[in-house]
C-alpha cells in the first residue's frame, strides 16, 4: 500500500530534494508540503499522512512544537525528524515528545528511503 | 579562547565541510591546511555563506567558493542550471548543513555548551569585502576538481551558560 | 513593525549625533539587501526556539554622515578599519536596544560587515521588516527577520 507523505521544511531546496527522492519510488506518495510548523499541523489535519518528514528550525512554529501537537492528538502518523543539527540534547528533546527516528542533513535518497521504510513499515 | 577547544572547533568545521560536500556531490574536497588570519579584512568573489553561532563559544563561519563550484553543487542536487536566486538558496543550505554538522559535534564534545546557529546569510558577487572585529580568525583552504573552497572561522569564548 | 521601534531607533541615532527626518516601516518577502554596504548579526535565543537576523543597510553617503556625526573632525574613510568598526558598534547599539522589545531572551552572534557593489544578498529566507530612516537626506534601513 502506498504511504502518504507530508514534507515539512522551510527550505524550498530541501523540499524539492525530498520530493525528487520519493518520486522514483512507488511505495511513497508526497501528498503535501509545508514550510513551517503551523502549516504542518493544519495539513496534517487535512491530509492525515502516514509519514511526516519534519525539519526542526522553522518560522511561525518549530518542528518539535508541531510534532508535539500532532502526536498529542493520538495520531498514528510516523514522524521522521530531519535536521542539520543532530546533537544529543536535540535527540533527547525529540524522544521526550515521542519522535524516535531522525536523519541528519545532508542525506542521500537511499538513506531517506531506508529511514522511511523502517518507520512506515513498508 | 582555550587552544584545545579552538582546535576541536576548527577540526569539526573542516570535517563537516568535506563530508557535506562529498555527500552532495560525490566529489572529494582536499584540505590544504589551516592558518591564523592576520587581517580583519577578507576578500571573496563568487558565492559566500555566513552563519553566526553563540553559546559557550561565539563566532561565525564564512564559506566562499567560485560561482562555478556553487553551480556544481546545485546541479548535483537538482539536475538543472541555477540562476542567482537558486545559487543564494543552495549555498545558504550548504552552509546550514556544514555548520549544523560541525556544531552537532561541538555540542556533543563539550557537554552543556549549547551552541546555537543563526540563520545562514548568503552572497553572490565579485569583489566582496567582509570585515570582522574582536575575534581570532582562522583560514582553511580546500581544493576540489572544480575549484577552491575557502572557510574562515572566527571565534571568541563566551561565559558558559 | 511598531512605531515604538521607530522611536527607539530614532533615539539611538540622535544620541550619537545622527539627525533623523522621518521613519517608516515596510514588510518584505525575504530578507534581501539592495545596498552596497551592510552590517548584520545573527539572533538566537537561549533554548533555540527562535532565530533571525538583524541588519543595518546603507549606501556610502549614509556611512559618511554617520561617521561624521560619531567622530566629528576625524575624516574617517567609510571602508577603513576605524570606519567599519564604528558602523559595527552602531549596529550593536541598535540591536541591543531593539531586540529586548521583540525577544527579551535573544542574544546576538558577532557582527559582520560586508561591502560589495552589484552583489546579490539573502540574509534570511524569512520575511523581513524594514525600518527606513531618513537621516539628513541619506537613507538607513534596519532589517529584521525573526521566527
Question: How would the blueprint of this fold be written?
Answer:
The complex is a heterotrimer of chains A (122), B (161) and C (147).
Chain A: E1 3-8, H1 12-23, E2 28-34, H2 37-47, E3 51-55, H3 63-72, E4 78-83, H4 88-97, E5 101-104, H5 109-120
Parallel strand pairs in A: 1-2, 1-3, 3-4, 4-5
Helix pairs in contact in A: 1-5, 2-3
Chain B: H1 3-25, E1 30-36, E2 41-54, E3 57-65, H2 67-78, H3 84-109, E4 116-117, E5 121-131, E6 136-144, E7 147-157
Antiparallel strand pairs in B: 1-6, 2-3, 2-4, 2-5, 3-7, 6-7
Chain C: H1 3-15, E1 22-28, E2 31-33, E3 37-45, E4 51-58, H2 60-70, H3 81-102, E5 106-108, E6 112-115, E7 120-124, E8 128-135, E9 138-146
Antiparallel strand pairs in C: 1-8, 2-7, 3-4, 3-5, 3-6, 4-9, 8-9
Helix pairs in contact in C: 1-3
Keywords:
heterotrimer, A: 122 residues, alpha/beta, Rossmann fold, 5 helices, 23% strand, C: 147 residues, alpha+beta, Chemotaxis protein chec, 7-stranded antiparallel beta sheet, two-stranded antiparallel sheet
Written description of the protein model:
The complex is a heterotrimer of chains A (122), B (161) and C (147). Chain A has 5 helices and 5 strands, in the order βαβαβαβαβα. With 122 residues, chain A is an alpha/beta fold. Chain A has one domain: 3-Layer(aba) Sandwich (Rossmann fold). In chain A, helix 2 (37-47) runs parallel beside helix 3. Chain B is an alpha+beta fold and 161 residues long. Chain B has one domain (3-157): Chemotaxis protein chec (3-Layer(aba) Sandwich), CATH 3.40.1550. Chain B is 38% helix and 39% strand. Chain B has helices at 3-25, 67-78, 84-109; strands spanning 30-36, 41-54, 57-65, 116-117, 121-131, 136-144, 147-157. In chain B, a hairpin with a 2-residue loop joins strand 2 and strand 3. Chain C is of the alpha+beta class. In chain C, strands 1, 3, 4, 5, 6, 8 and 9 form a 7-stranded antiparallel beta sheet that branches. In chain C, strand 3 (37-45) and strand 4 form a beta hairpin. Classes of the chains: A alpha/beta (122), B alpha+beta (161), C alpha+beta (147). Chains in contact: A-B, A-C, B-C. The interface between B and C is large, with 40 and 37 residues. Strand 5 (121-131) of chain B pairs antiparallel with strand 7 of chain C, so a sheet runs across the interface.
Amino acid at each position: 500500500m502506498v504511504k502518504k507523505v507530508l514534507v515539512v521544511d522551510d527550505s524550498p531546496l530541501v523540499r524539492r530534494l525530498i520530493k525528487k527522492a520519493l518520486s522514483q519510488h512507488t511505495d511513497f506518495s508526497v501528498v503535501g508540503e509545508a514550510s513551517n510548523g503551523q502549516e504542518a499541523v493544519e495539513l496534517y489535519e487535512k491530509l492525515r499522512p502516514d509519514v511526516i518528514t519534519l525539519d526542526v528550525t522553522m518560522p511561525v512554529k518549530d518542528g518539535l512544537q508541531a510534532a508535539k501537537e500532532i502526536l498529542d492528538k493520538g495520531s498514528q502518523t510516523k514522524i521522521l525528524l530531519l535536521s542539520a543539527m543532530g546533537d544529543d540534547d536535540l535527540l533527547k528533546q525529540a524522544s521526550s515528545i515521542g519522535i524516535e527516528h531522525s536523519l541528519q542533513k545532508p542525506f542521500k535518497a537511499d538513506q531517506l528511503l531506508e529511514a522511511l521504510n523502517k518507520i512506515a513499515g513498508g | 579562547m582555550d587552544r584545545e577547544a579552538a582546535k576541536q572547533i576548527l577540526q569539526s568545521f573542516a570535517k563537516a565541510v568535506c563530508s557535506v560536500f562529498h555527500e552532495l556531490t560525490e566529489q572529494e574536497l582536499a584540505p590544504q591546511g589551516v592558518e591564523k588570519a592576520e587581517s580583519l579584512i577578507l576578500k571573496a568573489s563568487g558565492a559566500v555563506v555566513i552563519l553566526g553561532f553563540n553559546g559557550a563559544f561565539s563566532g561565525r563561519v564564512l564559506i566562499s567558493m567560485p560561482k562555478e563550484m556553487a553551480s556544481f553543487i546545485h546541479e548535483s542536487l537538482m539536475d538543472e542550471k541555477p540562476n542567482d536566486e537558486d545559487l543564494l538558496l543552495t549555498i545558504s543550505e550548504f552552509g546550514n548543513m556544514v555548520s549544523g554538522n560541525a556544531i552537532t559535534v561541538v555540542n556533543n564534545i563539550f557537554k552543556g555548551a549549547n551552541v546555537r546557529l543563526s540563520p545562514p546569510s548568503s552572497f553572490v558577487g565579485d569583489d566582496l569585502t567582509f570585515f570582522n572585529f574582536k575575534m581570532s580568525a582562522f583560514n582553511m583552504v580546500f581544493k576540489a576538481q572544480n575549484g577552491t573552497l575557502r572557510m574562515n572561522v572566527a571565534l571568541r569564548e563566551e561565559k558558559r551558560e | 513593525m511598531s512605531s515604538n521601534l521607530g522611536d527607539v531607533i530614532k533615539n539611538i541615532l540622535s544620541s550619537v549625533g545622527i539627525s533623523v527626518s522621518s521613519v517608516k516601516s515596510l514588510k518584505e518577502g525575504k530578507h534581501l539587501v539592495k545596498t552596497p554596504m551592510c552590517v548584520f548579526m545573527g539572533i538566537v535565543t537561549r533554548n533555540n526556539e527562535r532565530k533571525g537576523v538583524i541588519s543595518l543597510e546603507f549606501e556610502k553617503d549614509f556611512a559618511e554622515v554617520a561617521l561624521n556625526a560619531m567622530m566629528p573632525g576625524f575624516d574617517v574613510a567609510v571602508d577603513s578599519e576605524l570606519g567599519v568598526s564604528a558602523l559595527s558598534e552602531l549596529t550593536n547599539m541598535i540591536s541591543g536596544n531593539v531586540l529586548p522589545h521583540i525577544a527579551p531572551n535573544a542574544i546576538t552572534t558577532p557582527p559582520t560587515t560586508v561591502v560589495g557593489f552589484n552583489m546579490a544578498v539573502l540574509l534570511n529566507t524569512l520575511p523581513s521588516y524594514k525600518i527606513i530612516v531618513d537621516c539628513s537626506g541619506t537613507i538607513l534601513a534596519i532589517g529584521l527577520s525573526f521566527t
